[in-house]
Structure formats: C-alpha cells, structure tokens
Amino acid sequence: MSLLDIARGEVDIISQRLKHLSEEFLEGLKNELRVILEGADGSQHGDEFLILQKLIQKRGDLTANTLTGAHRVQLEILVAINTGMQAFLHPSMSLSQTSLIEVFLFKRCRNIECQSQLPADDCTCKVCANTDGFCNLCMCVSCNKFDFEGNTCRWIGCDLCSHWTHTDCAIRDGQIGMGADVKTGAGTTEILFRCGACNRTSELLGWVKDIFQICAPSWDRQALMKELEFVTKIFRGSLDSRGRRLSWICEDLIEKMKCGMSESVACRIIMFFFQELEIESSRRKFEEIGRMIAPQEACSRISEVLQEAIAKMEKVEEERARMLKKARLDLEVCDRELENKAREMMELKMERKKKKEETEELESIARLKQAEADTWELKAIEARREAERLQSIALPKSHKAKKEHCSGIVISIPMNLPLCWPMKLTSATAAWLPWDYFTWEA
C-alpha cells in the first residue's frame, strides 16, 4: 500500500485494505506524506505532491457518499493532499469524519481555527462564488491563504464587504493608490484601497489610525517596528500631505527605535500625529461649513466645530504637557544616574590609584629586600673566602707545630719485638698517633 494507491484507488477497496494494516504502517504512510508536503518547494518532492494532487482532483468518484465509507487515515491523507496542508495529518487533529469530507469538497473552511461553512456568511461575490475553498472570514482575496496574525496592519479589511487582503498582496497587485477623498469627494485626493471582491474603495488613513489606537498598547517593540514598516509601505507613494507626513514619521520612528527609542515614546508620538490630523480635519470642516450654509446656521455649526476643535486641542495640549513633564522627569532621572555613574567612576579611579600606589610600594619593598639579600649573600661569600684563606694559612702552621712537638720523642723498639708490633696497637691509638713525626730506633 502506497500513497499513490490511495490517491488513485477506489475508496471502498482501499478502505478494506487499510483495515487489515497495522497502526505503525498507517502512521508511516502519514509521515511519508508529511515529508512530501514539507519539501513541496523542492523539485523532487514538489513533483511528487503535484502528481498526487492531480490524480485526486481529476477523479469524479470522490463524492460525499463514497467518502462516507472511507477509512479515517485514508480520508485524512486525501484531505491533506487536496488542501496541501499537514495539519490534517497531525495526531491531535480532532475533526469529525463529516467535517473532513466537507473540507475535501470545499464546503467547509480548511483553516482548522475557523471551520466556517462555505461560502461564509452566504456571500455571493465573484471571489466566494468562483474560488473553491475560499473563506472571506480568514483568507486573503488575492492569494487565498490564511494566517493567524490579528490586530495588525498586515491585513486590510474592506469597509463595505468585510473581505480581507494581505497588505503586501494589495501593494503587489496595485490595489493601493491615490483616489478621490471618500468623505469630501472631488477636489482632494488620498491613499485608498480598492477591494478585489467588490471593487469599491476604502480610505486607509483612518483605518491605520483606528488600528494603532486599538492595538498599539498590546504590541511589543518588534511588533511596533513591523507595523510602522507596513504603514510606510502603504503611504510611501502618497501624493497628499497627510499621507506623506505619516510615511516620513514612521520612517523616522523606525530609525530612532533602532537607535534606542522606547516603544512607548514612539507610540505616543504617532498618536500625537493622529490627533493633529483630527484637528486639521475639524478646521477644514469648519471652513467648508462657512462656505456652504446660511450665516445663522453657519454660526451655530461654527460654534459646535469650534467647541469640538477646542476640546481636541485642549486634549492634545494636556497630552503634550503630560509628555513634557514625563520627559523632564526622565531627564532628571538620567541626570541623577549620570551623576551616580560619574561618582562611581571617580571612586573606581581613586581605588585604582590607591591599589596602584600600594602595588608600587610593595614592589619597592620587594626590591629593597632583594638588595639586602644580595648584600648579605655577598658578605657570606666574602666570609667564606676569608675562612678558606685563614684555613689555608692555619693548616700548614698546625702541621708544622705537630711536627716540632713530636720530633723530640724517640721510640725505642726492643729487638725481640715482632715486626708487626705496631699493628697490635688499638685502632683508636693508631688513628691519632702522627707516625711520620716519630724517630724510630732499634
């Protein structure tokens, strides 16, 4: 039994054969398919996967009725080949037989975390109607892929049909560009997103502002830098002043964060920018009202707009004052830290100087002791030489005195003594007698 047999064999026959195989063999088949799916980008494994997928997709007998009698492992393998996803081979995958059949037949979302019935929300757009297995709740309209990233500018949602597109896919396919201002109409332009599903446009500046206001507090440093990069990509080609300024600010914040700026400060700066944009919008609204309506109504509207603008300006000013106060406190903390570090540095320098002086003093004492030792060694050598000299003088005199003392002693040896008589002296006596100084007479 091989993967090729499962891909082209009749469902009921393969199911019966699989029932008689061991669990180890069945797990081996699934592992073999995992290896093929993991290396699908390579030439060899990619060719194997395409062959298996084409065999399955060309078959007309793989219906809901026939698949109902399929072996569980057989169905998991068929679904994994058809979708190109390893998740359906995982031991912890707990989808029911019916759900697997619906995924295989593109009636249920292949995203295990979603599992919506297709078409999602009974959508009748051209994408949902014509793309097998597409789910407008979790998949990109352009690439038909899904991921598990949320609360991010990586995905752009259509304001009108709620279909989603990867930001990179939208930029690649030319779905992001300049267009007439959605709110004011002709006369002003801004960066817009054109949905690939409904072909209608959505403004992106307000969308980015909403994303940052809602999600930025939960982003860490790396996430914030990534989001700033996405915003820079979106507004890099903007021709209106607001979009250009947003792109410049994001680029500047990325560089400053690389040099050490904290994510909280960067987040507050871009929030400031969005608040300033709101004030500018209110000012433009005020000017338009003055041109379009009657004086009395204009005064009323102007009063409302002024109050709203003043409230926003006060809010911005309060935030700015709070940030300034915090910046001053941070600066004071930094100054104190610098003073402490400078004091510690001086203490370390003094300690180092003290250690150096102690080391030099010890080295001086060591040199002095070495000089004293050398002096005593020279004196010892001179004393040894003097002792040797005195000994060389005293030794001949001692021998001479002994000889003079013993020269007057005459030892008479009787004639009848044996020749070996001196040998009968004790060894102690014979040892100290200076025999060569005696005068011998027979």
Automatic annotation (TrEMBL):
<keyword id="KW-0479">Metal-binding</keyword>
<feature type="coiled-coil region">
    <location>
        <begin position="299"/>
        <end position="393"/>
    </location>
</feature>
<keyword id="KW-0175">Coiled coil</keyword>
<dbReference type="InterPro" id="IPR047578">
    <property type="entry name" value="OBE1-like_PHD"/>
</dbReference>
<dbReference type="InterPro" id="IPR032881">
    <property type="entry name" value="Oberon-like_PHD"/>
</dbReference>
<keyword id="KW-0863">Zinc-finger</keyword>
<keyword id="KW-0539">Nucleus</keyword>
<feature type="domain" description="Zinc finger PHD-type">
    <location>
        <begin position="139"/>
        <end position="199"/>
    </location>
</feature>
<dbReference type="InterPro" id="IPR001965">
    <property type="entry name" value="Znf_PHD"/>
</dbReference>
<keyword id="KW-0862">Zinc</keyword>
<dbReference type="InterPro" id="IPR032535">
    <property type="entry name" value="Oberon_CC"/>
</dbReference>
<dbReference type="Pfam" id="PF16312">
    <property type="entry name" value="Oberon_cc"/>
</dbReference>
<protein>
    <submittedName>
        <fullName>OBERON-like protein</fullName>
    </submittedName>
</protein>
<dbReference type="GO" id="GO:0005634">
    <property type="term" value="C:nucleus"/>
</dbReference>
<dbReference type="Pfam" id="PF07227">
    <property type="entry name" value="PHD_Oberon"/>
</dbReference>
<dbReference type="GO" id="GO:0008270">
    <property type="term" value="F:zinc ion binding"/>
</dbReference>
<dbReference type="InterPro" id="IPR004082">
    <property type="entry name" value="OBERON"/>
</dbReference>
